[in-house]
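User: Please predict structures.

Assistant: First:
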Amino acid sequence: MQLIHVLIGLVGSASAVDLYFHHSGDCSGASSVCSNMSPDRCCGVGRRDIYPSVAVRGIPTNWNLNCRGHFGGDCLFIRKAQNSNGANWVCLNDSTGWYSGIGYGFVNKKREPVPAGETGAPQEECVKPDLAILADGAQYDIAGLDEDAYNKFLDIVEANGVSADVPAEFDALRK
């Protein structure tokens, strides 16, 4: 039985699943991305409940993932969850509010119990987006930016910005 869990873990690390925060309500437009995420990890943007949609992309079609959009700061509370059921991506949007975190796990896999008073991933399991994709398709590597520069770049993404909106100080980050 433990061999199955090891194999699931290896399969999970062998395929790239990307988690997207979208500026629009239909999982399109400018986005912030956590690349190559492992299951049961949080991709979060801190206390910013400002993204109207989130997406899990690059799902192998033979996997069934439970995709979760969170609010309340990073992955504190689950706003919406949906299984992939063979789809290669899942878009989560909700007219009742916006998102601050996103994650996924395998359907039917037992998870560690969540401590009382929490409904999402613990803070230490949260990572920030490492890639920004602007409305004109320009991509920037935002991993490793200090907090002020990181927030400045997220402000551009959240305004559905294009590469012309990016200050020259970030030119070296363009992919």
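Second:
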Amino acid sequence: MVDALSRKTELASIMSQPQWDIMGLLRERLQHDPMVKSVIVLAHEGKTKRFWNEVEAYVRTCLVCQQDKVEQQKPRGLLEPLLIAKRPWESVTMDFIIGLPKSKAYGSIIVVVDRFSKYVTFIATPIDCTIEETTTLFLKHVAKYWGLPKYIINDHNPRFIGKFWTELFKLMGSELHFSTSCHLHGAPIIDSSHTSNGLYREKSSDVQVLQGMARASDIAHSYLDRAAKKRKKWADKKRHHTEYKVGDMVFVKLLPQQFKLLGPMHKGLVRRYGGLFPIPGKDGKVSYRVELPSRLKIHLVFHVSYLKPYHEYEDDPS
């Protein structure tokens, strides 16, 4: 069939394939390009190094490039592990799991993890659980059985930063620790607290530790310390240290819904980083306070991995 069609001149175009001398066309076009001619002249004069330095400096300091370009480097900020608890229920983490199928009047869960024994308490809550209800449930399901913890670690959920919650636990003698905005690497609230530290969990179960078996606390603390050091060692291999000074200008990696608060824009035009914003101070070892517009209404402390340094253009990059 193919051979029969190819013999008909009026159908020859169906089977034929055009042949283009692509390289020849490119050479011809480049020979007449004034930019290429200028580069060739600079190359003969030995000035290409300065020329390319200027091009590199321009690209590196371009405002649009700095906001949109994907960085090909390790994430910023070394791992800063939390202090290891010395006894059960001395330090706990709390977080909400929302968006669950509604069952009766419940649609969310409070997850409380003892950082020493990895014992977990799940508390069913209504979808619109208030600060007062959260406090009551915590006292009923956790403090009633294990006592008040010395440290409570959670994110910046409005329930955990409200005046009622903070003042109550301040009077009771408990310290509230918060993770930075959009970042839980330094304080794994739920995802890794119950599943990590396998080195320790192989040696003793959470029930054994809570029951106070002989030397369980000392053994658990030693394995937790080894696991934390091992995790930091491997995590730091995939990160690099970055430090900013007060007054430095940075870009901030915001969520798409947060970008909309800066101004109306199409989702396809949302940049990877917003800015520029100054740094008024440092908050911890790897977190910085950023001076954001008041209309954003988000937490002002960011982990260093969510910040990108601003490179200002210099007239003479050499």
